[in-house]
Amino acid sequence: MPLSAALNDADLEFKCLECDHAFKRKGSWFKVISTFKCEGCGAANRIGYADKLALFEKHSAPFG
Fold it and tell me: Is residue 34 a contact partner of residue 48, using CB atoms and an 8 Å limit?
């Protein structure tokens, strides 16, 4: 299942896997990154394709 191009310009929210710090980035950003540094705690986070699919599905749901 590909990541929806309809969400490329949408703000998607993701939480740090270590501290739950929430941040928003464009869908296109999530498509190209594989790791990021948390702005809250500084932890290095890895976001795999399965995580990206779940994130895009969450934000494409009609009431989610």
Answer: yes
pLDDT of residue 39: 92
Supply the pTM of this predicted model.
0.84
Q: How many CA atoms lie within 13 A of 2 on its CB side?
A: 6
Domain count, the chain: 1
Please report, for the chain, how many H helices and E strands are present, in that order: 2, 4
Q: Domain of 21?
A: 5-60
Give whole-number Cα distances, 24 to 1, 13, 35, in Å: 23, 4, 15
Count the alpha carbons within 13 Å of 44 in the hemisphere toward its beta carbon: 2
Q: What is the pLDDT of residue 2?
A: 85
pLDDT under 50: residue ranges of the chain: 63-64
